[in-house]
Request: fold
Amino acid sequence: MGSGGGGGGTNPESVVISKSTNGAFSLAMSTSFQPAEWDYSFFMLNPSATTTLGNLGPHHIRLQGVSQGVPQTTAAMWDFSTLDAITQPVLSVGDHSPEFQIAVAPAFMYDANHDFLDLTYAQVANYTQDLVRYYNVPGGFSASDGQHASPSGTPITWWGIYNEPNFNNLDSTQYTQLYNAVVPAMQAVDSSLKYAAVELGDYSGLANQFLPAFVSGVTAQVDVLATHFYSTCNQKDSDTTLWATVPGFATEVGDIYTQLHTNPALASVPVWVTENNVNADYDKGGGISNCTGTTFVDDQRGSSPFFAAWRPYVFSQLGKAGVQALYHWDYGADKQYGEVDYNTGALQLSYWVDYWLGQEFPAAAGAQLLQYTSSDDAELETLPVVNSDGSVVIMVANHAVNASTDNNGPGAARSVQVDVSALGTFSSGSLLTIDKNTSVTSGPMAAGVAPAAQMTISLDGYSVAFLTLKP
Reply:
């Protein structure tokens, strides 16, 4: 759609919006939790967090229980306390319809190498049936240690089948066999369930390696094909390196859709990105990086002004590629990952970025992409849409780098002249900007602007601006 090069200088860049449309744009925002012994107390520490979470308006919040968040502890024993410390509050907010990702089976189902002992996957299928009974069947299920039933009675419709099989000892054929065993077993308990398949730990070229065996071999119901994207696993990578990864996310999504279309039964299955953040690294214990084996350092770019340009850039690229849901990893955490602080519930800049993406581009708005030309597609990401009510939203994200060696740098200032003369006249307008000057406590404030044929947006380093025009 766009064309052009880069540069800052004193002259503003230009974006010219056309009245011609280029297809639908519908990308829902969401967020994630990982119930486990290290974060199960989030809602206990922050009772008001359900309010800030609900205000975010998340779509099918993702729950990924691992470690002690896996409720079956032995063949005869169950303990839902860690899992439900997160799950029950989540069931009470938003759309009351989380995506429960069955990330891993109970530990006793694996050998010492974390390979399944039962290669028919009947054992894990039985486990998933009891999970469905616990949340969706009145009275739950009976086990050797007694009766188990969800205290809320709120059912769970969406289920993700396993986490990142390519990183967790399952090749594509094995994963397909697992999926084909588990999904029918769960359907036998509740036929209304919907399923997110695969949830790859994605990287360039993986879709074309992993998906052919799944797409050709799956016989069970698939409602969504899910995948995960991170820009790095090394905090030392420069900003320039991270920005360069984002177009590759969209390319990989295109490859996923190409694979899905080889099977007519999957041709209409949408793609969700159920994990997304700047850096996938974490402390594996003793202060050591899981990815590099050196001292672990939080990547502050997950909540700094860098994120104010990075997530909108990702959002735009993925939405244009046809992704229908984008999930933040994860909600209550640290400066690297969290939208809010785990210990205090204090909002971080990432919260406001995700909040306003959801507000400005609601998935139900019936938005159509507007065609445009830009003098700088290399450093500015432009996302213009027209909604069914005739309103127009034009997002411009500035990811211009100040210096090639910057790591969580300030970005470079840009001025952009947006030409909307082709769109006719509007009665009112507003401009909302998120950047280094944004209050993390109260968030950004929209300012009224007078609609005109050409309107100028000033971007102070890494940032995003939303220009809204109403008829």
In short: The two ends are 25 Å apart (CA to CA).
